[in-house]
Amino acid sequence: MITAVAHSAISLPTSMLASAFGGAVPGVLQGPLQGPIPGPIPGGIALVLLLSAALFAIGLVGFLTRRNMILMFLCTELMFQAAALAMVAFGRLHMDISGQVFVIFILTVAAAEAALALGLVVLLYRRRETLNAEAWSELRE
Amino acid sequence: MAPLLLYATCAVGAVGLYLILRPGAKSLRMAGVLIGLAAAISLGLGLLKTAAGTLAPFDSVPGAVASEGPSTVFTGLFCLIALASAVRMITHPRPVYVALYFVLVVVSSAGLFLLLQAEFMAFALVIVYAGAILITYLFVLMLAQQAESEDDLRALAEYDRVPREPATAVVVGLIMVAVLSDALFGAGPDGQPRPGGPRGQVTASEASAAEWALLDKLPRSRDAAVRALVPDFREVVLTDGRSVVIRDGAAFVTIVDGEGATRELELPASAAPNNTERVGLALVADFPVSLELAGVILTMAMFGAVVLARRQAELGEDQRREAAGLRRLTVDGPDELGDDGELIDEARAGRRSRG
After folding, report:
1. Are residues A56 and A96 in the same domain?
2. Residue range of the domain that includes A61
């Protein structure tokens, strides 16, 4: 059972946390060591959910490693895509249409973000004649 | 699959990703590709194996269309394609190829949407994402990119070839995967499944009853389905405000037919609201305010893009004063009237007399 795996998977970091905090873990962080096991998530949906987690993480890695401003924004689009996948997969799991409706809103935000971000990038490119994000690193001071 | 094994596999995948990201020898990158692929496949297979010991993907979802092997195969295939193109996306040195690999991610997740019975969203994704948003990105990429030679990698910009802090980024990504998979598959703090977790699954009969009940909100669609069976029916009889009754998994409506007799009619399965109708109904019936807000967001984004993209004119001090309705400061300003000396003199004389 996938949930059995995940169940024991959560107990690993929480037990480490417990030893780090001297046994007293804040309630929110306290994971179950024993207890009822939730119903199984079917394999196909579990695969899609894991894929969405992986895509989100890859988008994050890309956002951190890429130095081209346009590609950084493209990596945020990848993260949007991962969120949309998770929405639809959960909607399928619960037989609820709202997941798909939220994908429409994700698409809306992604489109608005693309329009604004690309406008900004073009503006910045005109100023420095480069897409390198580090050309603007003096802004952090 | 023990939890330690799960984290170890993720860590191996992260090492593979680091090897691919980091600029280095080609053999090291190939090793990274192999390591990452092995980690991804073993993670997927382990996940499926532990999922109730079955490879049938959507079977344990109640109300699923009975589908054995093929959709597992397709799910795995689309997942692999999406994962591989996402990795290629963050490692490819040529920006245009990055955008094209993102199209591949979008298309394969549209395939996954089809497998998850979200047909409308699958097509909307291809049209809006791959068709519109990505084209915008491609346009801007091509506008901003200098012409470069096709084969020589060294001709590419340095900031596209060399990643920034790959090791730190991969560690952050690994933590992200661990947290997300914990949130997705883990249980809540009290040992119970999280609210809305897998316990919240509905049974097949509940799901199909809810689907048929939507026909009450779609009277025209319902009447069209009835008219296809009884062309001369007069009206649908409501019982307790509902027209569709579910019995033994089949849907029935009571109608008054052409002769004025009341009779019950079984609706065919094709009369159930399809995915597009259900999404549309949920959009306007359940989330009307969000829909309006989405419109406002799009309008504001359009205004913002217009304001940002407008070329900023460099105005001199005199032109700014003139625009504000003030007198010019300099008499011998730039000749805006052309090379003709007389004209300029006349204009100056006129300005003096006016001023």
Report:
1. yes
2. 41-140
pLDDT at A109 over 90: yes
Contact across the interface for B47 and A2, Cβ inside 8 Å: yes
Helix (H, G, I), strand (E, B) or coil at B55: coil
Question: Is A94 within 8 Å of B64 (Cβ atoms)?
Answer: no
**ipTM (interface pTM):** 0.78
Report whether B173 contacts A59 (CB < 8 A). Answer: no
Structure tokens at A68: 């081209």
CB contact (8 A) between residue A101 and residue B282: yes
User: Which residue has 């987690």 as its token pair?
Assistant: A53
Residues A21 and A84 in one domain: no
A73-111 residues labelled b (16+ CB within 10 A) or e (exposed): bbbbbbbbbbbbbbbbbbbbbbbbbbbbbbbbbbbbebb
Tell me, what CATH number does A112's domain have? 1.10.287.3510
User: Rounded CA gap, B127 and B91, in Å?
Assistant: 26
How many beta carbons lie within 10 A of that of residue A11, not counting itself?
A: 18
Same-domain check for residues A115 and A67: yes
Cα distance between residue B227 and residue B222, in whole Å: 9
pLDDT at B64: 42
Q: What is the DSSP string of A37-57?
A: PPPPPPHHHHHHHHHHHHHHH
Provide, as residue numbers in chain B, all residues whose Cβ is less than 8 Å from the Cβ of A129: none
Assigned fold of B3-187? Four Helix Bundle (Hemerythrin (Met), subunit A) (1.20.120)
B164 Rama sector, left if φ>0, alpha if ψ -120 to 50, beta otherwise: beta
Q: Is residue B73 classed as helix, strand or coil in its secondary structure?
A: helix
Alpha carbons B56 and B72: distance in angstroms, whole number: 6
B204 — pLDDT class (breaks 50, 70, 90): low
User: By the CB < 8 Å criterion, does A65 face chain B?
Assistant: yes
Nearest by CB to A50, from B47, B207, B300: name it.
B47
Please check whether residue A17 touches B, CB under 8 A. no
pLDDT value for B3: 62
pTM: predicted TM-score of the whole model, two decimal places: 0.77
Q: Choose among A4, A58, A116: nearest Cβ to B86.
A: A58
Between A18 and A117, the more confident residue is A117
How far is Cα B293 from Cα B18, in angstroms, rounded to an integer? 41
Within B122-249, strands assigned E span 235-237, 244-247
pLDDT at A4: 47
Contact B208, B202 (CB under 8 A): no
A58 lies in the same domain as A113: yes
